[in-house]
Amino acid sequence: MAEGWARALKSDVIKAYSAGIETHGLNPNAVRVMAEAGVDISQHKSKNVADLSHIPFDCVITVCGHANEHCPVFPGKAKIVHVGFDDPPKLAAQITGDEEKLNCYRRVRDEIKAFIETLPGGLEK
Questions:
Q1: Residue 59 neighbours by CB under 8 Å, 6+ apart
Q2: Which of 27, 47, 92, 103 is the most buried if burial means most Cβ atoms within 10 Å?
Q3: Does residue 17 fall inside a structural domain?
Q4: Which helix (H) or strand (E) holds 60?
Q5: Is residue 72 scored above 70 in pLDDT?
Q6: What counts of helices (H) and strands (E) characterise the chain?
Q7: Could you tell me the CA-to-CA distances from 27 to 11, 56, 100, 102 in Å, in that order?
């Protein structure tokens, strides 16, 4: 969702990539709630951070605790920033109704959007 928002809102100033320390594929609920907000991430691919090791990043932002704890070292002078968001699948796992599950994704989607709107200046605080 973060890559989708960055590309939709900030492509003029940010070249966004998304990767994890593990690949899991796209979550259909994330794709759905982003589409509701007018952002199509259906063609995005789940990538491992190792797949992007050739890119000289200025900044790497981790958005989940697990990634922050296990974030690999990046060559060069990449600034590493952690901005934690709840994990929608974990939140939704404890809920039974489909609409209530989607509301978990919607909340996190909107929190990520609000963060992305602060970039790149918000990283300098």
A1: 78, 79, 80, 81, 120, 123
A2: 92
A3: yes
A4: strand 59-62
A5: no
A6: 5, 2
A7: 23, 28, 16, 12
Tokens describing residue 75: 């060559």
CB of 16 closer than 8 Å to CB of 41? no
Q: How many domains does the chain have?
A: 1
pLDDT at 3 over 60: yes
Q: Which SS3 state, helix, strand or coil, does residue 8 take? A: helix
Q: Angle of helix 98-116 relative to helix 2-10, nearest 10 degrees?
A: 50
- Express each pLDDT in 13-49 by its tens digit: 999 999 888 888 899 999 999 999 999 999 999 888 8
Q: Give the CATH number of the domain where residue 108 resides.
A: 3.40.50.2300
Residue 122 falls within a domain, yes or no?
no
Q: Answer whether residue 123 is part of any domain.
A: no
From residue 109, how far is each of 1, 72, 125 by CA, in Å? 7, 25, 23
- The reported pTM is 0.89
